[in-house]
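User: Sequence in, structure out. Go.
Assistant: Echoing your sequence, followed by the structure tokens.
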Amino acid sequence: MTDCIETKSPTLPTLSPLAQTSGQTAARATVWMLAARAFGVLLDWQRRAMERNHLRGLDDHMLRDIGLSRADIEQEAAKPFWKP
């Protein structure tokens, strides 16, 4: 059996009404929101790379169970990590 890990991307925070009134606070919040988004993208890329690597390790019996061929796996695993 294989272990599956489900991950969810972090949700982006929204600006509170108080933060929207102060330019400096809003700018900081924007920077933090961009950082959170970038971190989420990095996590997605890492998860995608790990899943593709895991698929390569499945034997032919497991691939038949999930309805995939070795050619399907090689085609998916050949994609760069940033492409869905």
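User: And one key feature?
Assistant: Residues 23-56 form the longest helix (34 residues).
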